[in-house]
Amino acid sequence: MEWELGGPDWTELTQECLLDIFSRLSLEERWTGPMFVCKTWMNGCQDPSLNSVFDLESKFQSLPGSVSCWSDKIDSVLRSVVDWSQGGLKEVRVRHCTDRAISHIAKRCPNLEVLSVKYCPKVTDDSMLKIALMCPKLKELDISFSYKISCVCVDMVGKSCKNIQTFKRNLMDPAEVTSSVPSNYLEDPSIFLIYGNIDAYVIGKHMDQLKHLELRFSTLSDKGLAQLCEGCPNLEYLDLLGCSKLTSDGVINSISNLKHLKEIKKPSFPAFII
């Protein structure tokens, strides 16, 4: 009779039923709907089982123009998810966050396995060194286009995170460099060459377990690539698109010993299958 007169009372669903329903919704759907229905539903959305993954990458890809002005809001949402996960957050893919949020992740999420902080001009070595030291289970790291993360961080990640299998350190096409790049990169062009080879040396020395590596528009030289390939014999995928300091002979010689290599993207050449 109650069903016929007033309809079901959705607020009386069991916690198990709520979590089953909410687990079928995306992060955005939960944040813009169920969380604002009632306190019970909000508590359900905050359950640790629903907050093990924080992935906004597809959302950022669909947004036109710059959203860098959203840093405070992104930080706030990310910090909330970190707290709700109760240490169970394993995957984070975000842009335009700051050191504040990344430091919070390092402090509260020792089981983190995937971290992507592409296009994060306000993320620096300060927070990323904490990630390297406090998140040893990291398997995938993407710091592409985040120019304030230096080779010091790459070195510490290599030393501390021995499960890393995917590392992405893509740079912008020099023709498209914007104000997000620190001025010292532009005042002294030679620093590009230095940083590229240091990154290559560190990766080769400490990340022998790598399978997937992206270094688009890096300034590593043939010598740097040779050291990298010697130290990373398990590479299956290598992206060197836009690496203008490399030569064809240098690339061919360096990858000749990569027995597991399945695909490589060469500078100025389309991808080819080994």
From TrEMBL:
<dbReference type="InterPro" id="IPR036047">
    <property type="entry name" value="F-box-like_dom_sf"/>
</dbReference>
<protein>
    <recommendedName>
        <fullName>F-box/LRR-repeat protein 19</fullName>
    </recommendedName>
</protein>
<dbReference type="InterPro" id="IPR006553">
    <property type="entry name" value="Leu-rich_rpt_Cys-con_subtyp"/>
</dbReference>
<dbReference type="InterPro" id="IPR032675">
    <property type="entry name" value="LRR_dom_sf"/>
</dbReference>
